[in-house]
Backbone:
């Protein structure tokens, strides 16, 4: 069997087009643009790239982008004061503080300071709790993007066996909650799991969010399973001095067995920012008390 490639890049483009159309409607109704504020502290090169892409795509979707670039020496009080100011700003619908923060700043404290209804990353404990009990709130962008890809591919997920490898707060745990909400039978595997290949082999759906290059092998996959590879790992390339990106799944061997699989790059990666923009737009509609069928996007 040769698996079908799940094209996250194309899906993300479609999602951004829907967001752009609804952002235009929002602007007409609210007489202002929906707004997303991004806070970057320090000069981490990878974070710089993410923030630049987020800003560019926010504007391309017809939303306002407010970028706050602060020096690495920013104090706790200064950062919390900025978050508080953004919480009160009615032109800011969503707030994202780019992680990781410099070591002297407490990420949990900063996330806790964001108003839950502007927490478009879905990292605030209030939003984690809402997801756990099935109340509407903001869901972390990467796992929500994965569920969108799965539903697009498989339709109704109910009754399917899903294995999520990884239990981080930003990917693994919310992923498991979302699959449970779709009535999958969910197993969460992690570094202490015994006989991971046997656990993975039971699954109709495998989501790998581990951060270990090409760890999940084709021999582990049940024939016909759908494989979502969240991993982004930079490894040495074929030519000296060059690097390339690989996922947490060994793509070549898994493609021989799976029914469908996301490539890296071009799978889950492009979904994250598209879902962030979707969340920011949903926040804008809610903040203005305007109707939006959030299931439509
Ligand atoms: P974390 O490092 O926070 O979590 C990794 C998880 O994998 C942990 O739960 C850990 O288990 C588990 N794990 C580690 N080693 C093994 C092993 N040998 N067997 C089984 N489980 C193991 O990573 P994140 O969740 O933040 O990210 C995971 C991957 O997804 C990374 O490659 C990251 O770059 C990528 N990513 C991609 C995004 C995108 O936009 N596409 C967004 C976010 C992340 P334990 O808890 O026991 O330590």
Residues:
């Amino acid at each position: 069997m040769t698996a079908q490639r799940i094209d996250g890049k194309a899906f993300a483009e479609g999602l951004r087009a829907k967001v752009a159309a609804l952002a235009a409607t929002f602007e007409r109704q609210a007489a202002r643009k929906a707004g997303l504020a991004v806070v970057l502290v320090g000069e981490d090169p990878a974070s710089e790239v993410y923030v630049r892409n987020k800003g560019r795509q926010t504007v391309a979707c017809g939303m306002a982008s407010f970028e706050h670039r602060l020096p690495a020496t920013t104090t706790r009080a200064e950062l919390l004061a900025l978050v508080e100011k953004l919480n009160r700003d009615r032109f800011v619908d969503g707030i994202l503080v780019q992680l990781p923060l410099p070591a002297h700043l407490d990420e949990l404290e900063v996330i806790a300071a964001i108003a839950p209804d502007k927490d478009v990353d879905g990292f605030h404990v209030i939003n984690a709790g809402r997801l756990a009990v099935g109340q509407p709130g903001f869901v972390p962008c990467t796992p929500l993007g994965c569920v969108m890809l799965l539903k697009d591919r498989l339709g109704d997920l109910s009754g399917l066996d899903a294995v999520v490898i990884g239990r981080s707060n930003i990917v693994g745990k919310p992923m498991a909650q979302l699959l449970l909400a779709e009535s999958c039978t969910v197993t969460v595997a992690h570094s202490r799991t015994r006989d991971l290949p046997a656990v993975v082999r039971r699954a109709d759906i495998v989501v790998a969010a581990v951060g270990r290059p090409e760890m999940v092998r084709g021999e582990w996959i049940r024939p016909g399973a759908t494989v979502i590879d969240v991993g982004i790992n930079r490894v040495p390339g074929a030519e000296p001095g060059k690097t390339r990106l690989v996922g947490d799944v060994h793509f070549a061997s898994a493609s021989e067995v799976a029914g469908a699989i996301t490539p890296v790059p071009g799978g889950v990666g492009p979904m994250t920012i598209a879902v962030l923009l979707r969340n920011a737009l949903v926040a804008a509609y809610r903040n203005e008390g305007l109707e939006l069928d959030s299931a439509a996007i």
Summary: Residues 142, 165-168, 170-172, 189-193, 196, 209-212, 230-233, 268-269, 272 surround NDP (CB under 6 Å). The chain has ten helices and eleven strands. The radius of gyration is 19 Å. The first strand starts at residue 4 and ends at 5.
